[in-house]
Amino acid sequence: MYRKLIIFMSAVLTLISCKDTATGVGTAPMVSGCYSRLEKDTLTIGNSLIERKFVWNGGNLMTCSITDKVSGKIHRFVKLSPDFVMTSGGGSGQDAVFSSADVPQTAVSPAHHRVTVTFGMGALRIRREFRIYGNSPAIACDTWLKGSLTGKLASAVENNADRKNIEFAEDMSSRPVSAVLDRVSLAGNHWHARAVEFWDVTDWNDNLVAVRDIISYQKNSYRGNLLFMQDGVDGSGLFFLKEAPCSSVQLEYGGADFIADFGTFSVTGPGISTSDITPDKWTEVYSCALGVWTGGELEALTALRKYQKNIRRHVPERDEMVMMNTWGDRSQDSKVNETFCLAELEKAARLGITHFQIDDGWQVGKSPNSAVAKGSFKNIWDNPDYWTPDPVKYPHGLTPIVDRAHELGIEIGLWFNPSIQNDFEDWQKDADALIRLYREYGIKVFKIDGLNIPNKKAEQNLRRFFDAVSEATDYQVVFNLDVTAGRRGGYHYFNEYGNIFLENRYTDWGNYYPYHTLRNLWQLSKYVPAEKLQIEFLNRWRNADRYPAGDPFSPENYSFGYLFAIAMAGQPLAWMEASNLPEEAYGISSLISVYREVMNTMHEGVILPIGEEPSGRSWTGFQSLSDERSGYILVFREADPEESSEVRTWLPEGTRAVFEPVAGDGKKFRATAGDDGRVRFALPEENSFALYRYEVR
């Protein structure tokens, strides 16, 4: 009891002495204004936008304040407790080691500052690495564990119906959550929060985002990868981003991602079991980032996006693509061969395609999805030639395909399915196969399909596969990470490796509805960088008979250009065989050409949804905020009878702007933004669109 009192009093005294600013010894070299310092028992990490101070506590850090340097708001913590907890309790750490370093820019990662704190808690060794970027109001933390941890990590969820009714103050106590990735303990009783949950497995799900708005009261749990917190008194806010798969597919999921208890907010669910922790190697848990903002929704979303854009550098010549993948016409592997691909390339070039991807069927091995053979993914490496070009289909290898593609200004991409058996134990063989294809043919884009991540070992081996390919190819390879089925990375995990192949939709099955695709991108773009999502557009002339007669939302009711425009905020994916297109389809080549001129500038901005949620009868779209005075607006008039409508944008009320048409059916105009940034747009026909470049004047 005496020892606990000493620890408590020491923490209180440290909290009182935790100053708002600090200078002096121990300051690490800076990257774009980033810094860290350990002075006595206070660790400080910050940049020009955010600063977080910790009580050292033997390395078992306890945050005492977070400062939003833009607004000047200092969030002083009302109680001290360790930020990271894997077991009940949490005293001082042992054998703590602190280091910091500037990490130079790589082909994938921007330059940033890294702070490493390693310490022990009994038989468990913990390593926490903080990442901070110069232009981001957020600090991320990656955590590894080594040693041993007995028992079972407690579930985060506690049913309120199983708790005692509250008649006395002590009735409000609740059992602690064993696993905490990070937490804040904020003053005030008027904290509002928004939890955002995501779903992938898009072969089965077509509702990918759900938002729950709450007022924090007592101890309750919430699901999601994002939690925005805002003080109802002064408007200051923070956010947590849990860098993990979607809640429904996380490893060892305890039923919740966040715990809210008045002003105390915690991130829970590390994605491991105690058996995953071993003395001989470091095991990584799910990461999280903590950011600050003040103001309204735009400020919150911009703060989040500034962090997200640092996870992977967006290099135009590597990451921008208008891709064609022929699988969308459902021929599967029955057509792909040298002759077919060469013919498709000629037509793809006419359209303006930048990347032509050969899906399943280019290889010797036959998958279960083969239309010509009964294939399997089991024991792939029993056939050492599984991932070599089929000599019957491609008698000259891929060389004629690659050479002609380069003459046409097109990159060739391939489909690949890693060997999932025994938790990806053959990851090195898989990696060697892709490295060989890169070195022999210069293949830089691989669609990664068929993943299923059942446990931590599988996740670790899969990451080894990605890292091995990336390192051997000087990070020139881009992975299109398919999220259509299985237990995969979702929207907030493995983001450093490439972009996201969002969904399979087919006219053959009558499940491709353009406004559904637009709605999925629109909803996701609020919380996920749209430029990281591959968005499909299909051949509108195929399979009209697969839709109910008179269906107003079937693809045949939309122009081909409109279908392409739906994908422009993301990475357009021509999910079709060009040989099945009628001649009139090539009329969109001018639209694609204009889009390619502006796509990188548009994607460099913060892309957010505007207008109403797409329903088939809405005025809707996207805004790319390049800076405070310029950007792009892509607006859609769905099947709405009105020729003009006020569309809610992210322009401040009273802003005067000039809107110059770039593509589509819009005309130049000037407008002053009204309430909620509303601007009146006019489009001549139902199911039409316009892309504008705007400037504030």
Describe the structure.
With 697 residues, this protein is α+β, with helices and mostly antiparallel strands. It has three domains: 2-158 and 173-308, Beta-galactosidase, Chain A, domain 5; 320-602, Alpha-Beta Barrel (TIM Barrel), CATH 3.20.20.70; 619-696, Sandwich (Immunoglobulin-like). It is built from eleven helices and 36 strands. Strands 6, 7, 8, 9, 11, 12, 14, 15, 18 and 19 form a ten-stranded antiparallel sheet that branches. α4 packs parallel to α5 (399-407) and α7 (427-441) packs parallel to α8 (456-472). Residues 1-17 and 19-29 have low confidence and may be disordered.
Which short descriptors sum up this protein?
697 residues, alpha+beta, Beta-galactosidase, Chain A, domain 5, TIM Barrel, Immunoglobulin-like, 3 domains, ten-stranded antiparallel beta sheet, eight-stranded parallel beta barrel, 11 helices, 36 strands, globular, disordered N terminus
